[in-house]
Amino acid sequence: MMAGGSQVDIDTDAVAELLEVGGDVDDFCHEIVDLAYDISQRLVPQPGRPGDPYAKGPLKASGKVNRGTHPGEWELVYGTDHWQYVEYGTRHMKAEPFMRPALLGAVFQKAGGL
Fold this sequence. Notes:
By secondary structure, this protein is mainly alpha-helical. Helix content is 43%, strand content 9%. It has five helices and two strands; from the N terminus they run H-H-H-E-E-H-H. A two-stranded antiparallel ribbon has the order 1-2. A hairpin with a 6-residue loop joins strand 1 and strand 2.
């Protein structure tokens, strides 16, 4: 996990094995994270009431995909200071996950629904 965001790590060796080394692992990982970003943008909860310190409009706007330092490393980042409260909830608010379901959905879509 990164300060102000979240990092998704994909095991490139496992991806290469799944692809039977028949494709570009970096491109494959990038496609998964891009797809997860698209899905997460649809899942981010709608903004809260006016003046809500955890308004979710800025959360949606802060989403982005970054390239990592090594091939196959891509980050799906939500860079607000409250993304984790929305994703995991607190004792005062229920969780409204958007990143975990998005990544899982992207992997299943990319894997052909297996």
